[in-house]
Amino acid sequence: MVSNFVYTVGSGLYLTAGVLYFTQAVRLPAGQVGVGLGIAGCVSLALGIAVGHLADRLGARGVYLATLVVQALATAAFLLADGFWPFVLAVSAATGAKAAGLAARSPLVRRHGGDRPQEFRARLRAVSNVGISLGALFAGWAVQVGSHAAYQLLVIGNAVALAASAVILLPLPPLAPAPAAAGPRWVALRDRPYLLLTVLDGVMAVQFKVLTVAVPLWLVGFTSAPDWLVSGTMLTGTLIVVAFQVRASRSVDSPAAGGRAYRRAGVAFLLACVLVSLSAGVPARAAVALLLVAVVVHTVGELWHSAGGFEVSFALAPEHATGQYLGVFGLGAGLAEALGPGLLIALCIGWGRPGWYVVGALFALTGLAVPGAVRLAERGRRGQDETRRTVNA
Q1: Which CATH fold would you assign to the domain 187-392?
Q2: Axis crossing angle, helix 229-250 with helix 215-222, rounded to the nearest 10
Q3: pLDDT-derived band at 47, boundaries 50, 70, 90
Q4: CATH architecture label of 2-169
Q5: Stretch 76-88: mean pLDDT, rounded?
Q6: Which of 85, 88, 205, 229 has the fewest CB atoms below 10 angstroms from its CB?
């Protein structure tokens, strides 16, 4: 938990001002930065599954520590990135190591999370939001100063936080490799119901970009609300996650409950999108009220979505292939990370109010489809378990 907190303080530094470091301090064109981040995103998609499989076979603690060390070194290499290709190499290594670390960490969460690793993961997410908020405060100082040295301090701080996170994990007992199961090596990629859940979660994961991409652009460009409300909406969402993520996860204690949580989340996202769309063309006070209510409703949906994702991704993954399965499940979120901002900008900002309705309907329909996909995955998991018991007998 402490290691995760330190890690996310560094993440808060980078999430808030990482792009600005490359555009303002390194002086790379914004277009090149966008292309480089896209390349890095593609690299991370491939590494998540492979390293998750290594964590299952070699032991999750050692593999996860290695990803933290690589991420720290790659982040430090940002200081040497004085052109496009050095930037691409450094950011690809850092982003790939981050994605690989999330997959490699999954067996550790299952092992040390007790009977409810999903609830433990919810605690980690709550702590993560606290750490990211603190990192964002320090990043705000650097952005305000705007000097090359200030931006370099952010990079150094992120690299130090990553290294410290690895050091804190050293006393953790090693996790023995999971015994290999009979059958294909890349079993997660053959599990069609689980892949379907991955796709649906990827569509739903676009919601994570609503409050960080679409709402700020809409607020500034289409409403009469004051610009400082951008920070207010972010803070509101963060505080709700910190306060209620664990509580929201406690009632989601089975795959079926996870499917129902997705369904509720889809409805909440639809309602939030409608409220945001209505904030245009009204007086400032009404716009502020509508936006804040929309953020609250959206964040409640986010709590349900995260709780549902924690449950179905772990409960439907066999214990001997946790890292591999969670690496596959992360593909959906990775695609949402890469494609979500462009999709939201094209629909919500480019199209305007009708675009918000389309996005909200997409979330609602996805949520409605998840319970059926969960039932398919449960039947498939029971079949795989029976086959494995037969082989072992």
Answers
A1: Growth Hormone; Chain: A; (1.20.1250)
A2: 150
A3: confident
A4: Up-down Bundle (1.20)
A5: 91
A6: 85
